[in-house]
Amino acid sequence: MHYVVLQVILKEKLWGTGSGNLTELEKTINAQASKGYRLHTITTSSSGSKGLGGGDRIQATMVFESLA
User: Fold this and answer.
1) pTM, 2 dp
2) Cα–Cα dist 27/46, whole Å
3) Which residues pair with 61 in a beta bridge?
4) Element housing 26 (H / E)
5) Ordered strands of the 3-11 beta sheet
6) What is the pLDDT of residues 49-64, one digit of tens each?
């Protein structure tokens, strides 16, 4: 089997809730699906940000496997 591993960094808003990150994940998953891959595994880890603009960062690591 052929696998592809991708990492996406998602940034949460400093104030308020939500960030629109779901669309970023959807774009990544759909792009790989159009190439003949399906999502096999996804893991996430988060870390805070102390820089200007703040907000938390979430790292999503996705493993896709080839359907062919």
Assistant:
1) 0.72
2) 20
3) 7, 43
4) helix 21-34
5) 3-11, 57-66, 37-47
6) 655 555 677 888 999 9
